[in-house]
Amino acid sequence: MFELNVGQDLPWKSPEEVGQEMRKYVALGPDFVKIGASGDGKLVNSEIGQDAVLRFSPEQLREMAKAVHDAGKIIQAHTTSAEALRIVVESGFDMTQHCAFTGPVPMYEATIKLMLDRKFYCVGSAGLPAEPLPARSSVTTIEVHGVESIPDADRDASVLDFVGLCWGGANSIATAVLGAFPIMFGLSFWRSRTHRWFVS
Prior knowledge:
Structural class: alpha/beta
CATH architecture of the largest domain: Alpha-Beta Barrel
Order of helices and strands: HEHEHEHEHHH
Strand order of the largest sheet: 1-2-3-4
CATH class of the largest domain: Alpha Beta
């Protein structure tokens, strides 16, 4: 939309006007729409940094999502902060790029839950944040690494984690059902645990 001389003016418009501009843009026939919910790049007259600056209000983002969805298209966002990610998810977007980049704070647990509930697509990036992400123990933590080798500083698995992985794979419902067959056929538990029942 920047190329069409629309995007640079969008933050100045009311939510209703943003929705109108988005409808005009979608009518041109794009396959999908991606907007920048937060900035990126070098600092601009501020120590905060562009990546921490929200470009649109939640109301503007909701109007964008409605306009794009009404046209049967997918809308995604560029986000570079935990707050931008939260607002985008709550505004009804379908997916986001760079969701692993949340600055000095991790994704909010409430945002992760909402992403799971709404089946929101969270696309990572080729690189990793300059600063390591804070460690979290929640089972809802989203993996930020791809197929590349995980840096030693981010490897926090223990031997117990490996044992749990192997134990869980070897002890499935199918294993329990098959193990119950000998007892179902009349053998005692202890007799079914030995090999002698094959020959006696």
